[in-house]
Amino acid sequence: MISTRKSISEEEISCPQCSNIYTYPVLLLCGHNVCKLCLHNFWEWKKCQECPVCGTESSSGMPPVNQDLKLVVDQFQNKKPMAQEICALHKEKLKVFCDNDEVPICLVCQISRDHKMHKCCPVEEAAQQKKTEMSNIIGSLRKKVRTMSKTKHQWEEIKTYIKTQSNDIEMAIKGEFLQLHQFLKDEEDMRLRILKQEEQIKIQVMCSKIEDIDKEIQALNSTISKVDIILRAKDLPFLQEYKRTKQSVNRNFQEPETMREILINSAKHLGILKFTVCQKMLKNVKYGKNICY
Questions:
Q1: Domain boundaries, the chain
Q2: pLDDT at 107 over 70
């Protein structure tokens, strides 16, 4: 145990593991003291619980904090002036603040050549002034944060609205194209219906013409068959039937009709199909019939 005498060196209260002043020193069974965190890290690394100094096996749990040593360390820390409070050049306490260089200095620095003509004031006074100044800056920054947070909230709302707007427009586009598709489907059905009607009419006409010519062919074949029989008859019977046969052969048989413009006019249905449909579609869009707006 370290005594509480007035003069204690830093080496006496330094951890043998990290070489810094003890932080929560724990007392091992072997009598060595080690920082609690240093011991924990050492055991984690070694995968066994032994003293970092002598290697003696320790207890299974974390050793207790050496309260006496901790008290000595605390007293030493309280008496020891902090490094940041001491002037690095003159080893004096920093009691003055140089406003020109904006750094704390010691009294020796204040009368030195570097700071002699500078505006200086006590550290306490400067701290109060600079804290007020910094508080004002922080207040301004907080105001900016509030403004930016408000802007962010507005932008979040705009982002959400953009999504909603996009969905609405998407539905509208689909609706418009659905009407366009329906228009094109109706137009297609109408044109196919006209084509089929024309086809049926022309087919009926051709069926009627074919039926007529079939009758003529049958009549001719019948006449030919009768004449063939007569031609094979003997002279007298042939001559007896000659007059009647001649009349039947000379009967006015109609010549086959020449069919003109009976075929479907492809150009009428296909020639300017796209142009006609587009014109009709533009007219409907313009006047708002069935399709758009």
A1: 11-80, 148-287
A2: yes
pLDDT at 114 over 70: yes
Distance CA 200, CA 128 (A): 106
Topology annotation, domain 11-80? Herpes Virus-1 (3.30.40)
Q: Encode pLDDT of 207-220 as tens digits.
A: 998 998 898 888 88
Whether the per-residue pLDDT at 137 is higher than 50: the answer is yes
**pTM for this model (two decimals):** 0.45
Question: Can you state the angle between helices 235-249 and 123-231, rounded to 10 degrees?
Answer: 140
More confident residue, 159 or 252: 159
